[in-house]
Amino acid sequence: DDILLEVEHLKTYFYLGKDKVAKAVDDVSFAIKRGETVALVGESGSGKSATSLSIMGLVPSPGKIVSGSIKLNGKELTRLSEKEMNNVRGRDIAMIFQEPMTSLDPLFPIGDQIAESLLRHKKLKKKEAKELAIELLKKVGFVRAEKMMKEYPHQLSGGMRQRVMIAIAMACNPQLLIADEPTTALDVTIQAQILDLMMDVKEEFDSAILLITHDLGVVAETADRVLVMYGGQIVEEGTVEEIFQQPKHPYTKGLLKSMPSLEMEVERLDAIPGSVPPSHQFPVGCRFADRCKFAMEICQKENPALFQTNGGRKVRCHLYESEEGEHE
Ligand code: SF4
Ligand code: MG
């Protein structure tokens, strides 16, 4: 079986007060195969980060997983104790965030932090952990890795810190790497280097990646498959070729249009007007209806199901319901 991660009917809600429930993740299902790079795309507020935090078992209060299942190698994660989940994190699943400064401890040198991560998950002697840490720093491109071991986080640039985070993430050879906007805070040339590095490291360690981003340029360069998220739900799923060459959902089409072309990377060309509806007030109908130029009467009344066309594409839109296929 080559399925590594299987998420089924996941609902992660935030209880914000009396009668105010934010349905950040609202019945999301998808799978990731071993070694695959899957991109989860959408604007901020669409539920991407809540999805990744759910997989990591790190949903902050007042949020919680209300229902659904998250299986890694067939093992249910949502029922693990905090201690068991701690072992899964770092050993089986590792995460890289947008701003590495918040995940690095400012008080300790880089070397100690990598070694600590190694010691927590592997049976190593201190000296072995240190040697392995140096090796990892070399792998993420630090030529003078011994010197880097002694540096403190504030002494490094944003790009260097992100390299360190990748070294820490890969320290235990995780099967799944979750990268949430890993390059958003970096400037464009450094972004490209970090992405290249992530892909090299992924090859070397044979990990799968769940890449969370709003940047379709990044997706085009790295992903095998794409999940488009909107209003807490997946609205379209396809291979990277399908999504870029033949997008079906009006939201996906809008996202692609607002992507700056390579020659004209100056400004957004045709951004989608409006914004994602707040997740405590989804409309009864299609959650994109307010912003959709194809909206029909039925779109105001009924939220479409994620519809599988006979070409194997999945799309949540009433426009495609007359095509032959199955409803999920
Ligand atoms: Fe637009 Fe209707 Fe499709 Fe929603 S269901 S994306 S409103 S056409
Ligand atoms: Mg986010």
Task: Give a quick set of tags describing it.
328 residues; alpha/beta; Rossmann fold; 2 domains; nine-stranded mixed sheet; four-stranded antiparallel sheet; 11 helices; binds iron/sulfur cluster; binds magnesium ion; ABC_Ni/Peptide_Import; transport; ATP binding
Helix/strand layout:
Elements: E1 3-17, E2 20-33, E3 37-41, H1 48-56, E4 63-72, E5 75-76, H2 82-91, E6 93-96, H3 110-121, H4 126-139, H5 145-149, H6 158-170, E7 176-180, H7 188-205, E8 208-213, H8 216-222, E9 225-230, E10 233-239, H9 240-245, H10 250-257, H11 297-301, E11 307-309, E12 314-315, E13 325-327
Parallel strand pairs: 3-8, 3-9, 6-7, 7-8
Antiparallel strand pairs: 1-2, 1-4, 4-5, 9-10, 10-12, 11-12, 11-13
Iron/sulfur cluster (SF4) is lined by residues 250, 286, 288-289, 292, 294-296, 299, 304, 317-319.
